[in-house]
Amino acid sequence: MTTFKLPINRLERPNLTTQLMRIGLVLTISFILIALFAPLLQTIGLLKDPTDLLSYPIQAPPSANHWFGTNVRGYDVFSRTLFGTQAALQVVFLATLISMFVGVPLGLISGYLGGRLDRILLFLMDTIYTLPGLLLSITLAFILGRGILNVAIAVSISYIPQYFRIVRNQTVSVKNELFVEAAQALGATPIRVLSKYLFFNVIQSVPVIFTLNAADAILVLGGLGFLGLGLPEEIPEWGHDLKEALADLSTGIWWTTLYPGLALTTMVVGLSLLGEGLSEVLNPRLKNKN
Fold first, then answer.
1. pLDDT at position 17
2. Considering its fold, how many domains does the chain have in total?
């Protein structure tokens, strides 16, 4: 008797990258929900005030009253860790938006117009790109001062060349396509060509860059906070809390560094997995063709 085997559709069996992307998406959404609902949890009494340092004992170990213990200033570590998600997402979201809204239009204009403007912008972006990102952010944060917007600007500058270069290269390759030449022959203005015919054909990689830059921005923000150049001390922020807890490690007080560090690491991993998964989904050439 002849047996027939039904063909297996690969799309029905998600590969490892797709599964990791789902994990990254779940982690990212979880942190967003924490940031949104932390104030509500404090209002209903399920979360302590992250800025109150007078009501709690100093360096108290984890207990029923303080689930993650307290730090050297008497802050509740559990509350600071959860509220630190807000600061991280605010800075990261602003930084990546600023870099995207600057880099993408410049890349479109530079790639489409070419000429001297293209050469000047390429030189400027290459100069920024060659500078160490963290060092550039430290310098700008020192100049601009503390604050969410100032730190976001300091972090965003080093990401602008990434958007610029990928969009500019895509624009150069697409601007000579027949549909673009046809639009130009029909009298379409450069603005219309850029906005209608080029923009949506060159931004496929932007979500990937956005996500990966967000993961990197978390680390940069943590580094600035650790150096005392991040947000004001009254705002819960993981890098600053790790700086405050640095001396605790030598005395066996582990909880003040474990939980902020774990939160920072988990968010970076989540965004990185999401970015890598998006890279494969949006760029079919990277998929395994076996």
1. 74
2. 1
Q: Are 193 and 112 within 8 A, CB to CB?
A: yes
Domain boundaries, position 161: 21-37+74-284
Question: pTM of the entire structure?
Answer: 0.85
- Supply the CATH number for residue 173's domain: 1.10.3720.10
Burial-class residue 216 by CB neighbours within 10 Å (0-12, 13-18, 19+).
Answer: buried
Instruction: Find, among 179, 173, 158, 168, the residue nearest to 221 by Cα.
Output: 158
Alpha-carbon distance values, 139 to 122, 129, 242 (Å)? 23, 15, 21
Residue 44 covered by a domain: no
Q: What is the pLDDT of residue 226?
A: 92
Q: Which residues of the chain have pLDDT under 50?
A: 1-2, 4, 6-13, 286, 288-290
Within-domain flag for 278: yes
Is 52 contained in some domain?
no
